[in-house]
NAD(+) diphosphatase (Microlunatus endophyticus), 336 residues
Amino acid sequence: MGDRVMPSRVEPYPRRFTGPKSVWTSLADVTESRLSTTADWAAASRLIRVEEQLTSNEWVPKLWQSDDALVVPVDSERRIPVTVAGDQVRFVKPAGDYDSQRHFLLGRLDGAPRFVTTMDFADAELLTGAGEVARDEVVPASLRDVAANLSDIDRDLAIAAIAITNWHRNEPFCPRCGAASEIFKAGFMRVCPNCHNEYFPRTDPAVIVAIIDPDDRLLLGRQSSWGQRVSVFAGFVETGESAEQAVHREMAEEVGLPLREVRYFGSQPWPFPRSLMLGFVAYAAETEVATGYEISYADWFTRERLDRELEAGTIDIPGRSSIAHRLVTAWRTHSL
């Protein structure tokens, strides 16, 4: 893993929503709130990307001025505005002239353009697609806190918005010569005016793995900083290796287990800052687990033990917005 920090391992759990009304109940309340299904990313998104038209100097500004255009605001803390219940994203109407260095086109939803920009929410008139709402009905929230409560399309828009604004915030300079670069293609390309290098948003692939032993038990573990929280295991794909090879290497490094079978489960975008989580199910060839500097605790769980400890509140698992939760739930319901 080197010196990189795996976002899903450091903060794989939704932090408590701090708006006027929390969208999270205590996970110690009932097992059902901890082991529930959540939408996956297998179906096509309703957000239509418009790659072939992003280079037009006239088309994108016209979309910005169209009556049905809406903007996803993202603030300096990477939060989005949502309803107090945390189940809908609130949008703003485009204001002023189109600015190619600040306004980025995410795509079209049912033909209507959807943009993103960074702004202070206090500066915007907050809207839904249907009309105005009172300002006290809107609160800023982390995507980690509310993703599980959003509709598929609001979730897709929010993830895309945070991912592209993260890229511009973190990569303002040319990676070749260090000069300040400029934004093109409605936010999806940067060009260096000095060396003319073109570069594009990156996604870092990472694997996340549910390991099952010959007795159909699931391996769960934690880092020392996680408290009572446990999860499946994750790590970045290194240069020059396949995702499957990363599964074998990471699981050997983290828990010392050789694997006899690895199969793909599904994926999830995770824009903190730019990961694509590739989920796998792996079957362990043996059961002796070795923890080390990354993993402080790991143990095999039967379904009965997992239910019992969740009910007692002695362990916690990742929230419903995460692929880690999907993996645990799929194993728990015999769906792997």
Notes: The radius of gyration is 21 Å. DSSP finds seven helices and 17 strands in the chain. The first helix runs from residue 7 to 10. The helical segments are 7-10, 59-65, 143-146, 152-170, 243-255, 303-312, 323-332.
